[in-house]
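INTERNAL AUDIT FORM
Audit reference: QA-55
Scope: verify that the stored structure record matches its stored sequence.
Auditor: D.O.
Record contents follow.
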Amino acid sequence: MSFSDFILNNYQVLFELFGLLIILIISVHIPDRMKIFMRTTVILLFVAIIAHNLEAWTQTLETYTVLRPLLTSVKYLIYPIILMMLIETISQDAIKIPKKFKILMLIPELICIPLYFSSQWTHIVFYYRLDNVYEKGAIYFLPYIIFAIYLILFIIQIIFYLRHYKTRDKIIALYITLVSAAFIIIYLILKGDTDFTPIFTSATVFYFLFIYIHLASLDPLTGLMNRQSYYKDINDINDRIESVIVVDMNELKYLNDTYGHDAGDTALKIIAKILLKHAGHHKAVYRTGGDEFIILYSIKDEKEIKRRIQAINDDLAKTDYTCALGYAMRKKEEKVVDTVSRADNNMYEDKKRRKQEILAKGGQIHNR
């Protein structure tokens, strides 16, 4: 097999992988940790392409060569490793995987290493006859079971990663994951081949783009949705918005000037966590400015909105920070921006009231 044949046979996959590698290099939205695992995934896919093509070349030989079982072992091992890389890619955003569980997750793959690479002599998983014909071993199904285990773990991780996503985003991500898995199963049944590289590559590219687009819609500091997402959502979910809470942190500038921006960042993260806790099922919380937040609700009951504001204030009281809050219930035929404007005015009334209370107690008001 010549180099030109290799390129011609794999040009589509190579084009996708090189493109993904370029995006990873120039991307500003993806955290460094996520980039490391995505780059490792791309490199492993390159290795999978080379291993498959070399193994395909060894099939054309008339007699057995030791290179073929080695390449087969690499093919069996590499796809579960790729799945582990993809699991690690989102582990910090989905659920932080405990170190003990990570070690347990490695055990099936580690057990397989000696089984695969010794199988030509033990005949336990597979072996090749002297005339270069593939034969099944006693536990020939082991690679498929191991692959299925890691695929299930990946799907579970995806479900956790999607728990705060909008319904449309969940559908997109699950489509990429489940349809890819279905095609792999169909591919195995119909062709009996274990070259999943084209499917894995396309799925990885779509998976990365989905994560990239999602991260671009978030505020990188707090993890809440950003201002651009807010403007988009007041149009996309306009019919479902029934009430609004506007939140403004008090004295962020004083905190930054006195204790440094790290202290201010910590405060914003704590407040964001509290707001997210009381945002409801759809988690429509936005950081629209330096110290400004908006929560959009589909709740029509004003008593419930007041209850949530009280719950937010109760949680804030357990911290060193305070916020002014204002809400508004959407009127019939009213535009969302007008509802937000009324909530904003109510927030400033609350801020004024809080300042007056502090002054009445002899306290000091710092600049924002």
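Auditor finding: record pair retrieved intact. The mean pLDDT is 85.
Action required: none
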